[in-house]
Structure formats: C-alpha cells, structure tokens
C-alpha cells in the first residue's frame, strides 16, 4: 500500500504579507508559558509546533519574516509590516511556528500534548493539553 501523502499545513500573519506552507508531519506540538513567549506574542500561553527547516516554505509577497535574535540558538520571527508573531527560527535546522498563525489551527496533527514553563502562567489562567 502506498504511504499516506504528508499533510501540507498553511498559515500566515495578520496582514497576509508573510505566508507559509509546512510539510507534515508536525513535530512536538506543545504550549509554553515562559516569559520570552509571553513578550514575543503578548499572550499568556503560546502554542507551538516544529518542522524541519527544509519542510517550511515562505510563500507570501513579503518573503521571509523579519527576525530578532532572542537567544544563543534561536531568533524570533515576525511580520515587519503588521507585527504579527510567527514563530522561532532555530540555528539547529528547526522552525517552530505559532499554532495560532495556521489557517487550520485546530488540525489534529497540531494539537499540543505538553505544556512547557507551566509556572509562568497566572494561576487563574488554565491550559488543558491532555483532553
Ligand atoms: Zn503581516
Ligand atoms: Zn516559551
């Protein structure tokens, strides 16, 4: 039997200048409540999914996103036109994309199964990753 065709995920920023296509399978879908993610997005908790760098193509008129060097191993990516946070481009050949930027954020393959830096969220903010 032929292998199932890998799913292609699409998404982009608020203004549409930055668009991407990412070839499945998506890796390590997880949520994160660390301070860097909070500042990067303004959200109390972010949701992430990873792809090998070669599996992601920037397809919008704006080309590749702008980046800001956020640590020794990674840069945060954003749209220079509308300011939307898009993800993180690691030096290791990995691109982590924010699940909220996907056209179909509810796709089963993108469902988080772990929560990093749980302690960084306010106690009144609840994140369910196991249901
Ligand atoms: Zn934009
Ligand atoms: Zn984080």
Structural features:
10 strands, single chain, binds zinc ion, 131 residues, seven-stranded mixed beta sheet
Fold and architecture overview:
- By secondary structure, the protein is mainly beta.
- It is 5% helix and 38% strand.
- The chain has 1 helix and 10 strands; from the N terminus they run E-E-E-H-E-E-E-E-E-E-E.
- It has a 7-stranded mixed β-sheet, with helices on one face. Strands 1-2-5 form a 3-stranded antiparallel β-sheet, with no helix packed on it.
- The chain starts with 7 loop residues before the first strand and ends in a 15-residue tail after the last strand.
- The chain binds zinc ion (2 copies).
- The site of one zinc ion has 6 residues, from helix 1.
Q: Based on Cα principal axes, name the global outline.
A: globular
Number of strand elements: 10
Amount of helix: under 10%
Strand order of the biggest β-sheet: 6-7-8-9-4-3-10
Work out the radius of gyration. Answer: 15 Å
Task: Give the terminus-to-terminus CA distance.
Answer: 32 Å
Beta-strand percentage range: 35-45%
Order of helices and strands: EEEHEEEEEEE
Alpha plus pi helix count: 1
Largest sheet: 7 strands, mixed
Structural class: mainly beta
User: Mean of residue pLDDT?
Assistant: 93
The kinds of small molecule bound in this structure are: zinc ion
List unreliable stretches of 5+ residues. Answer: none
Oligomer: single chain
